[in-house]
Amino acid sequence: MRLVVLGPPGAGKGTQSARLMQKYGIPQLSTGDMLRAAAGTPAGSRVKALVDSGSLVPDEVVLKIIAARIEQPDAAAGFILDGFPRTVKQAEALDELLRAKNMKLDAVIELKVDESALLGRIDRRAKEMVAKGCAVRADDNPEAFKTRLAAYREMTAPVSDYYARQGLLKTVDGMAPIDRVAAQIDRAAESSARV
Ligand code: AMP
Predict the structure, then answer these.
(1) Does 195 score more than 80 pLDDT?
(2) Of the candidates 66, 76, 2, 77, which has an alpha carbon nearest to the alpha carbon of residue 32?
(3) pLDDT digits (tens, 9 = 90+) for 121-154
(4) Ligand 1, closest atom to CA 36?
C-alpha cells in the first residue's frame, strides 16, 4: 500500500500516519522528521532556519531526501508519505520516481480541518510536549504557524487538485474524533488498495 496523507499544519497527519504505519506494517515517511534530523547536521543550518520559521524547504532538497528514502528496503512493500508532496513540483517528481520503479500510489488522503481550529491544536500539542518533558517543536508557535498555513494555502492546496485530477484524492473530515477520522481513512485506504 502506498499512501499520501495531506492536510494543513495541525490537521493530524502525523497521528494518523503513525497509526497507519502500525496497522499496515509499512513505514511512515515524514519529510518534516527527516528535515529536522538533517537540520541537526553542520550542513543543515539553512534547512533548520527554514523549518523553524515555517517556510518550505526547496523542492530539490526534499526530493533528494525522499528519493533516497524510497529506495530503502523497508519501503519496498509500501509506505505512508506524511508531509510530502507539499508542492505540485514535488508531486510530479514523485510520479516520475514511482513510474521509474513501476509503482503507483493507491490513494491520497486529505484531512479537511476548519482553519480556525488549527492554531488551538498546535498550541495544545506544544503544551502536551511540555507536560511530557519533551522538546517543543520550534515551529509550533503562532508566528511560524502563520507562515506554515500561508505555505499550505499557496503551495500545497494545489496538490489536492493535482491528485483529484488523477482520481486518487479521498477527502476525510479531520474535525471528527480521532477514532472516527481513523475509520474514514481506513475505509478510503482499503477501497483504493491495488493489492
Ligand atoms: P511537518 O513536520 O510535516 O509539519 O514539517 C515541518 C516543516 O518541515 C515544514 O514547515 C517545512 O519547513 C519542512 N517540510 C516538511 N516537508 C516538506 C516538504 N515536502 N517540502 C518542503 N518543506 C517541507
Answers:
(1) no
(2) 66
(3) 999 989 999 999 999 989 999 999 999 999 999 9
(4) 8
pTM over 0.70: yes
Name the residue of 5, 17, 31 whose CB sits within 8 Å of the most ligand 1 atoms, as the mutation to test its pocket.
31
Sign of the torsion formed by the C-alpha atoms of 139, 72, 194 and 20: negative
72, 9, 105, 95: CA torsion to nearest 10: -80
Query: Rounded to whole angstroms, how far apart are CA atoms 15 and 170?
Result: 18
In CATH terms, the superfamily for domain 2-194 is P-loop containing nucleotide triphosphate hydrolases (3.40.50.300)
Decide if 95 contacts 89 (C-beta within 8 A). Answer: no
pLDDT tens for 68-99 read 999 999 999 999 999 999 999 999 999 999 99
Active site residue 148: yes
Looking at per-residue pLDDT, the higher value among 195 and 36 belongs to: 36
Query: Quick one: pLDDT at residue 194?
Result: 64
Q: Where are any strands of DSSP class E within the chain?
A: 2-6, 28-30, 79-82, 107-112, 169-173
Delimit the domains of the chain by residue range: 2-194
